[in-house]
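Quick start: load a record and inspect it. Here is Glutathione transferase:
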Amino acid sequence: MTRAQFAKESAATGEWKRQGNRFTGRISAASASAPGEGPDEQGRWPVEPGRYRLVVCLACPWAHRSVIVRKLLGLEDAISLAVVDPIRDEKGWRFTLDPDGRDPVLGLRYLSEAYLATDPQYDGRVTVPAIVDTVSGLVVTNDYPQITLDLSTEWKDFHRPDAPQLIPADRAELDQLIDEIYQDVNNGVYRCGFATTQEAYEAAYDALFGQLDVLEQRLADRDYLLGDSLSEVDIRLFTTLVRFDAVYHGHFKTNRQKLTEFPNLWAYARRLYQSPGFGETVDFDQIKRHYYVTHDTINPTGIVPKGPDPTIWQS
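Running the structure step on this input writes:
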């Protein structure tokens, strides 16, 4: 079998199997803990503005979701933001974008320091986004699907007055779409890129483009995936689409066609990009440098392509 980018997450069949989320604490309005305290008996941390730090990489689509939702809901003052370098080294995500290479709030050089403070035996891949408690220095959660949902549901008292309702009252259609898009698109591009057999790659490729064809048709008569209003699932799809032509099409071999060759998906993605909270959170330089430099089994030369021209997103 071809050498895998992340050996622990590659099955014997060559299929990419993403690791689970190690830290699954919740910051909840229902927490019985007082301000400054740790989680209650049910593992719920108290909602406390100014206490928690959201650690992200601007290159990472899973982290990008939380950046967009935090901005759309107006939670910038309630939850502080730390941005790691897009280039990982052997110790993982680095705070080298900050003065002296340390996060100014947490005092860390590496996000892995917070992981090991929380679980000294942790030997998995350190991932973003992660929410770190500034009081104890412990990781509250790296459960990226739940983080954005909780920003909508548990932090309502701190939303700006005109914040969008990203989660509809009836969640059945939302949850089904989230699951389908995760399996075949959000994680599907990785299942293509990190596959180590031809069979695993082609299966992921077929599922990815099959789902994109379905979404292309879905968007033929609506502005958003659930109809007339923006929802959580639009944000989750956007963070994959905005990276598609820049990295996934070439780097991950998802090359049946480019995003720009899907008329409805391309119009939808540009519409979101040009909306407040979306395009301003996209950093194509960091996106390209992360994928092309850190995935050395896929791109051993580390050469970062010049294109595509990002100005087309403003058209």
